[in-house]
Write a structure and sequence with these properties.
Helix content is about 20%, strand content about 30%. It is α+β, with helices and mostly antiparallel strands and about 775 residues long. The longest helix has 19 residues.
């Protein structure tokens, strides 16, 4: 395997032409470079970007496409020897996929319909179905009693990419609204389908939306949102059906502050439409009384200005985030918020007719607890479910509310308990019935496949379906939690899953048995936006585990696994380097105690993690790396407000147009730190490009979140730097294999076809295993 790699090395693509381009940081006339002009460089400072020309917003430049194809061709030739191995892994993954399966149906509305999705062997996409049957038995969810609402396979015909964003039945059940992205650029076209006529409704297409659709109180009104030129959701629109189509649609709200994204949703009571604008650090929500709006539409025959029904909940207050739902019986809004300095969020409420912050009050019997990080409150008719984190794990609490002496409070609280030591549990989006006495959750652990459970209002969880994973026996695998010391003394949690060896002793000390032998280790990380990489099940990992690898998730700072402070205080802005150093220190801990070799992977902002860690780690720590759609050109991207996500993310990374952040970001931006210098000395550890592990970079041409040119420029920079080092006579004992693979038909989230997605993961894993010398051999 390795010999084949060596034979192709001399044929690697020449670095593309370097064309100096001056990138400005600071004040630029006519551009939004930051809201506080006094904080910016003025005059602007410049840096040279020799590969700026690789950016083509239209994705049509022949010169650029030719370069991407040249890299793709090289990747293909350099990995020809693992094609059969990749196919073998694909077949293993596919053998663990129950190809024909269905979700547990969920009830929508009061007409008795229960909706579910189904997959069929050999078909790439889902079918959306409904039934009147109350049974969850597989045999009762097929045949004449089941109606196909939408077949995504039919939608996908003739499309290279097909992502169905939403499938939303109307209140009457006679129509369904669905949205389709056919490029991967995350711009969706909305269609209405008549379920009785089994045909599209003519002249009802809505162009260029975000993909989210919400019905009003009945079938006459649809709410949807649109994006600006920087791909930012910024407008809430409304269609009163029968009033002339898109030309007569009403713009209800426009968010002009480029730091804020707009979204809309219905309260769980179904009585209120919320329109929320949120930056990384601030929220503002508006609401529409749907009953009042419906009455106005009915009485006027449709000709009514619905913008007049839009009322603000609480005006934006820099630094205050809130999430809201409607407790109908008590006529209150219920919030989770970080107001009043409550970093981990607290539960509060206010009357519906007095919803602003000055009227918010905390629940006396559910006081703020800094050990609990609250994430959301979901109101049912008779109880409220609060989701959050405690002790590093996802948690759910069931609260009963009472008005008592006229002020809303919690009369009882029950935390939902589960047996496993480490797991992930999430409140399901399939909870559509407001007056239910139970609710649905999705539960899994690193050895337990996704389990749909119903939780009673008293807190008892009952499994109703465990995802079937063919040829998988959970008793053959084990999971545990470890902690790795970071350089500042902070302990970083690690979630581990591995396959038990023949000499494994059931009931013995799990940690001691795991630590007693060395094994190749796959280390995964993310560490940004407060996103948590929880210890959930991953079927696609099984080919790694079956070959003796341990799979480890590093819960590094920048996520919020240990609360909001793990992110807000210790993992963003001028503390961002904690994220990369934590990951490196986790690698050192594993290499010292258990790992014979280490593969690393991260996607998107996790790709930034991989790039920065490769630069900052001592040579030889990591053996192979996979960087998926990596955000690696941080300086150039974050100074340019025309690029999607830039302005909103100044509250994540900082703004390099400001001296306060410029040099700090420059110090870790992967593309700006590719060099030939290396050092293994503590305190000055650094890897030059010649010391990099073998690297596979994947990208999507139509990706709006991390544009294809970032990984392309990163690869070009590495190739140029490596060529310069060789020309200067550098002692390069083993030249790293550097590969760029760009999907010319997809976006940020890779293939929409489930079989194609498995093939892509199979290729990634075959590359990793080959580089670790683990090509086909007997499994453990």
């Amino acid at each position: 395997g390795r010999a084949a790699c060596v034979r192709t090395m001399s044929a690697f693509p020449r670095p593309p032409a370097r064309v100096p381009h001056q990138v400005k940081y600071g004040v630029v006339e006519g551009e939004n470079r930051g809201s506080v002009k006094e904080a910016l460089f003025d005059p602007a400072v410049t840096r040279t970007d020799p590969y700026f020309w690789l950016r083509d917003d239209d994705r049509k430049s022949e010169k650029v496409i030719d370069y991407l194809k040249e890299e793709n061709d090289y990747c293909k030739s350099a990995t020809e020897h693992i094609e059969s191995f990749s196919s073998e892994i694909y077949l293993e993954m596919k053998s663990h996929l129950k190809e024909t399966d269905q979700e547990v149906p969920w009830k929508v509305g009061s007409l008795g319909w229960r909706y579910f999705t189904r997959t069929i062997e050999g078909k790439s996409y889902k079918l959306h179905c409904r039934t009147m049957s109350e049974s969850n038995a597989e045999e009762d969810l097929q045949g004449d009693g089941v109606e196909v609402v939408l077949d995504e396979n039919e939608v996908a015909k003739g499309l290279a990419h097909c992502d169905v964003g939403c499938v939303t039945p109307s209140p009457s059940g006679r129509l369904v609204a669905y949205s389709v992205d056919s490029t991967g650029y995350e711009t969706y076209k909305v269609y209405l389908r008549d379920l009785e006529a089994k045909a599209l409704v003519e002249n009802e297409v809505i162009e260029e939306t975000t993909g989210d659709v919400t019905w009003g109180l009945d079938d006459s009104v649809i709410f949807y949102s649109k994006q600006d030129k920087a791909h930012r959701p910024h407008q809430l629109w409304c269609r009163v059906r029968g009033e002339g189509g898109e030309a007569s649609d009403q713009l209800l709200f426009q968010e002009d502050d480029e730091r804020f994204w707009l979204g809309s949703w219905k309260s769980r009571s179904g009585k209120i439409l919320f329109c929320g604008c949120r930056s990384k650090e601030t929220t503002e929500v508006w609401m529409i009384d749907l009953a009042a709006a419906h009455e106005a539409v009915e009485s006027s025959g449709g000709a009514v200005d619905l913008k007049a029904f839009l009322k603000i909940v609480s005006p934006r207050d820099q630094g205050t985030i809130y999430k809201v739902d409607h407790a109908e019986a008590e006529n209150h809004l219920v919030f989770v918020t970080n107001a009043w300095g409550k970093q981990e969020f607290t539960l509060c409420a206010a009357p519906v007719d007095k919803p602003s912050k000055e009227n918010w009050f905390e629940m006396e019997s559910f006081k703020y607890d800094p050990a609990k990080y609250l994430l959301g409150a979901y109101c049912f008719k008779d109880f409220v479910v609060v989701s959050g984190r405690e002790g590093g794990l996802t948690r759910l609490w069931i609260l009963r509310l009472s008005l008592g002496s006229g002020k809303l409070d919690v009369s009882s609280c029950q935390r939902v308990e589960f047996d496993e030591e480490a797991y992930e549990v999430n409140f399901s989006a399939r909870n559509k019935v407001f007056d239910a006495d139970e609710f649905r959750v999705i539960y899994s652990s690193m050895v337990t496949p996704d389990s749909t459970m119903m939780v009673s209002s008293s807190g008892v969880a009952t499994p109703i379906k465990v995802e079937e994973v063919p040829h998988y026996d959970p008793s053959m695998y084990a999971t545990l939690r470890l902690e790795a010391p970071a350089r500042d003394g902070t302990m970083i949690p690690l979630s581990v899953v591995f396959k038990k060896n023949d000499d494994f002793v059931e009931g013995g000390d799990l940690k001691a048995q795991f630590m007693s032998r060395r094994r190749p280790t796959y280390l995964y990380g993310y560490g940004s936006y407060g996103a948590c990489m929880d210890p959930s099940f991953g079927m696609s990992r099984l080919p790694l585990l079956d070959r003796g690898m341990a799979y480890v998730i590093a819960h590094i700072r920048g996520g919020s696994e240990l609360g909001r402070k793990w992110y807000q205080t210790e993992g963003k802005y001028l503390a961002k380097c904690n994220t990369f150093d934590d990951f490196i220190d986790c690698g050192k801990f594993l290499k010292e105690h258990v790992a014979s070799s280490i593969a690393i992977e991260g996607r998107s902002a996790g790709g930034l993690l991989i790039g920065a860690s490769m630069n900052r780690a001592p040579p030889g720590l990591f053996d192979v790396a996979v960087a998926g759609v990596p955000f690696v050109d941080v300086m150039t991207t974050m100074c340019d407000p025309s690029i999607p996500l830039t302005v909103i993310e100044w509250e994540e990374w900082g703004n390099p147009n400001e001296p306060k952040y410029h040099d700090y970001i420059l110090g870790y931006s992967p593309i700006d730190n590719v060099g030939a210098e290396s050092s293994a000395q503590a305190g000055s550890e650094k890897s030059g490009v010649q010391d990099y592990p073998a690297l596979l970079i994947t990208a999507g041409l139509h990706d709006p979140r991390v544009a294809y040119w970032e990984p392309a420029k990163w690869m070009a920079t590495m190739r140029h730097t490596l060529a310069e080092a060789k020309a200067a006579g550098a002692d390069i004992r083993k030249e790293p294999l550097l590969l760029l693979k760009t999907d010319l038909t997809s976006g940020h989230f890779s293939a929409s076809d489930r079989y194609k997605w498995l093939k892509e993961r199979s290729f990634d894993y075959a590359f990793v295993l080959d580089q670790l010398g683990m090509t086909p051999k007997a499994k453990i």
